[in-house]
Structure formats: structure tokens, C-alpha cells
Amino acid sequence: MTKTRILPCWFFIVFPTLPAMSHPPQATIEDKDLRPLNLAVSGAVTSSSSFQPFSDLGCKLTGKRIFVNTKAATYFITTDNTCGWGAALGPVWLVSSTKLEWKLILSSGGYSLHAAPPYTNGMPEIEISGGTAGVPLKEIFRYDGRAYRAIK
Q1: pLDDT band of 2, cuts 50, 70, 90
Q2: How many CA atoms are closer than 13 Å to the CA of 46, on its beta-carbon side?
Q3: How many CB atoms lie within 10 A of CB 2?
Q4: Sequence-separated (6 or more) residues with CB below 8 Å from residue 88
Q5: Could you give the CA distance from residue 145 to residue 123 in angstroms, rounded to a whole number?
Q6: Using one digit for the tens of pLDDT, what is the confidence trace for 110-145?
Q7: Which of 73, 75, 114, 77 is nearest to 92 (CA)?
Q8: Residue 91: CB partners within 8 Å, gap ≥ 6?
């Protein structure tokens, strides 16, 4: 007679989520440490056509510095007070500076941002993820030397 071993139910709940828990996001649109930005940083977003729908709503920007590259200051930016958001999904911009000029390098939408190898042109891949109504969203971006582009 063979013994059948039954795994406890927590095994199926915990282990499929381990990869997500081992690499927490660098930023989310609901982070408590997001702050108003200076005009030089926010201007890179507000001058972009990707901000126009949020400008029409009177949205203000908030963000924080994230560390994706040692040679450039990079900010994660979203709209303040959930302005223009969907259900747990908001606009996401990355702005970077290397020579005192702030440049928009990514414009997308989602909930969280993960930066991880591989590196291309000195910048890591970026994953923007989120989802609503049980439908996950995950988009990967690679830096082409000027901006992040979605990987197809």
C-alpha cells in the first residue's frame, strides 16, 4: 500500500507568489513617499502630449526619485490625488537628467514599476504592471539610448 502525501493548502497560496515577493516594486502610484516636484522635473511631463488629458482635468503631479542608474537622476511620476486614474491604474512617467536637462524617457500607465537587468544602453529593463477586474497588465520596456520603448 502506498502513502499519498497531501500538501497543506498554504503551500499553493505562498509558493506561486514567491517571485513577486522577492522583488518588490521600486515605486507604485500609491506610495506614501510621493511628493510634489520642482518645475524643472515636472516640466518634462507637462510639456509632453501624454500629459494633455490630465492637464484638461486640472491634475497636479507627484513623484519620487528612484535609483535605476548611477549616472542619471531619475524620477517616477504620477498624478496627485488619483486624478484621472482608473481602478488601481494611473499614469506613469519616468523623467531623467544627466546634464541638468530633464527629459521624459517613459510614458505609460499601470500600478507599479520594477527595474531589473538586463541593461541596455546603461539602463535596466522596466516592467510596468497592474491590472483590474482580474485582468493582469504587464508591459516591459527597454531603453534605446533616448527613451524607453515597449518590447513587443
Answers
A1: low
A2: 16
A3: 4
A4: 111, 130, 131, 132
A5: 8
A6: 999 999 999 999 999 999 998 777 788 899 999 999
A7: 77
A8: 50, 51, 54, 78, 79, 84, 85, 107, 108, 109
Q: What is the pLDDT of residues 82-93, one digit of tens each?
A: 999 987 789 999
Based on its alpha-carbon atoms, the radius of gyration of the chain, rounded to whole angstroms, reads 18
Residue-by-residue DSSP string for the chain: -PPPP---HHHHHHGGGHHHHHS--SEETT-TT-EE--HHHHHHHHTSGGGHHHHHTT--EEEEEE-S-SSSEEEEEEEGGGTT-BTTBEEEEEEEESSS-EEEEEEEEESEEEEEEEEETTEEEEEEEEEETTEEEEEEEEE-SSSEEE--
CA distance 110 to 133: 14
Count the alpha carbons within 13 Å of 78 in the hemisphere toward its beta carbon: 27
Q: What predicted TM-score, i.e. pTM, was given to this entire model?
A: 0.81
- Average pLDDT of 34-39? 96
- Return d(Cα 126, Cα 150) in angstroms, integer: 9
Give residue 19's region: left, alpha or beta (phi > 0; psi -120 to 50).
alpha
